[in-house]
Amino acid sequence: MAICGAHTTTSLHSPCTTVSNTGCFQQKQVIFFTSNRRSGRRHGGARTFFQVSCSVEKPVIIGLAADSGCGKSTFMRRLTSVFGGAAEPPKGGNPDSNTLISDTTTVICLDDYHSLDRNGRKEKGVTALDPRANNFDLMYEQVKAIKEGLTSLLDPPEVIRPPKIFVIEGLHPMFDERVRDLLDFSIYLDISDDVKFAWKIQRDMAERGHSLESIKASIEARKPDFDAFIDPQKQYADAVIEVLPTQLIPDDNEGKVLRVKLIMKEGVKNFNPVYLFDEGSSITWVPCGRKLTCSYPGIKFAYGPDTYYGHEVSVLEMDGQFDRLDELIYVESHLSNLSTKFYGEVTQQMLKHADFPGSNNGTGLFQTIIGLKIRDLYEQIVAERAGAPAEAAKV
Amino acid sequence: MAICGAHTTTSLHSPCTTVSNTGCFQQKQVIFFTSNRRSGRRHGGARTFFQVSCSVEKPVIIGLAADSGCGKSTFMRRLTSVFGGAAEPPKGGNPDSNTLISDTTTVICLDDYHSLDRNGRKEKGVTALDPRANNFDLMYEQVKAIKEGLTSLLDPPEVIRPPKIFVIEGLHPMFDERVRDLLDFSIYLDISDDVKFAWKIQRDMAERGHSLESIKASIEARKPDFDAFIDPQKQYADAVIEVLPTQLIPDDNEGKVLRVKLIMKEGVKNFNPVYLFDEGSSITWVPCGRKLTCSYPGIKFAYGPDTYYGHEVSVLEMDGQFDRLDELIYVESHLSNLSTKFYGEVTQQMLKHADFPGSNNGTGLFQTIIGLKIRDLYEQIVAERAGAPAEAAKV
To answer: Which of A85, B87, B248, B316 is 20 to 30 A off residue A112, Cα-Cα?
Structure first.
């Protein structure tokens, strides 16, 4: 289960405009609530107060679905970094939280919408993966309020002004159709069973002293609900980052060298998939050769059109890992539609967070690229909104 | 055995310059001799008379090695066409000749250097593939004379003024080290046994009524000498065009859909290998996709560095065949270092000779590309020669 909280910053002061006859002083409030693992406190419900927004700048809503321990917090750090704000732990929040925030981005964890706490779930015999343990009505109401530009309060009380980017991350961001329809962009982080197992062994056995048997048992126990309720969400995602074992080392199961796929849905508004060399054709590319020398097992890229749950998609794949910076800038120079603002921005972002997990492989690269694509999506939406009244005034 | 002759045109009138104290009127002659299949006449030797050249324009010498029935004449038509002259059958030559000529290019067939005729070979028990049936001393002397810019006579007497491009084609252009060293560029046309067999069946069985057994027997009979004397020459070639069965159709042995490799030696003076997308890395490319629709079995390209007989090479491979023009221009637009003079020149050349065998596959494409590379090589050599005296004058 993810440990996370709802956080934002207050540095966004949007211009106040009249959105209703009552002006911008009529207020409602949304109470968000955080889990606090240390105190063991967990809410089973929420009081809701609405506060009318004085802003025309409504947030762009992003959904990120993933299991726990799948690197969501690293992804969120990379995302917020792309927007230029300093990423830092939430003020006054849970110090163990996976969530980080920046000037522009608010990330809330959907664990906050558990309608049943640990004891409640035990009594009813459901897991946190089960929709029955989650309050989708409340999730919908509150995300909708944020999307409409309403300010809200955290618990402990803290005013949330609508951020530029509002991310809901957790197990079920695309489960409920109403919530799904609020999302401007959705991402599914899909860690294959083999890699998940290797990672869990690394973390729970090496770092936490669990036995191999208990790890296996816990994975097996989660699997039916995971397959029933979490996994099916990937069909709705605009982008899926799929993490698989490498194919460069025969029979590798260490989970250290990874093959990562970025599956990008075609025809999504304001989202133009990245491509390698030639848009729409099928390509494999081993950049290691005369110009670039890579150590074992090297790097292999693949790109091409495909279908994914009946949708037309473009898939970019990276197997292997980078040794050095020049490999990354070399790769970046051959990718198109990256939505960078200058040549080398992907490499710069990756270098800035070289200490983050996955910075030398496809997880870091594709998370960074998705961050850039979300920035681009945000800017297109803002430009559209700015253009729309002007267009209306013309008529 | 190839049926061919020595031919040239007389349209090149080079400026007369003094190359010796005796001026440019002292003359020697080289007698070339042609085979004439219809009359059954074949020479067993040659009279040689030298004629001092009055030209500073010495020909660029190209060697093309290939077995008979491997498409050399089509290759020569494509090559001469790239140089802009009209390709036509040799005047006064053997009307059955495989050789074509243009304003700028002379092609001679090395069958003319057989030191033993059919009867002589039968007596001594050697094949035409055997070096003992070929007069390499004479080949060397005459090619050397041509390289030095000496004019020569054909038999029946016809003045050969040094052409721009002088091609020696046949079974042994790279066999003799002295002859090999005279070559400015060398090409080996390497038809795999499977394809050769399929082609022979098509030609000798379907068109000439031979039995399958006799075709198999004739291939088997040639094979030991071919492997001993012809095949080893490919290690010396600057470019090898290798023709293999397709891998796009499982277990295909029809020899209709071909996989063709263009193996280009690195570090050859005035020859800069063609590449796909990214020089020096390894790439596969299926252009058929969203932008380009191809019929079964499609088209697949591959490119990358490799080693070939211990030499560093770049290999460009095409499997499959073109349906339409837009596929070719699409492919051309993604190839670099083509040495074209304008965008689309490869496609234009291919269209010009759409009726030639192999125009819809890698044989035609790579022959055309090699033609362009030879034009480029020729122009670089001419520019060097023009620059060299000027440089000398400075000192």
So the answer is: A85
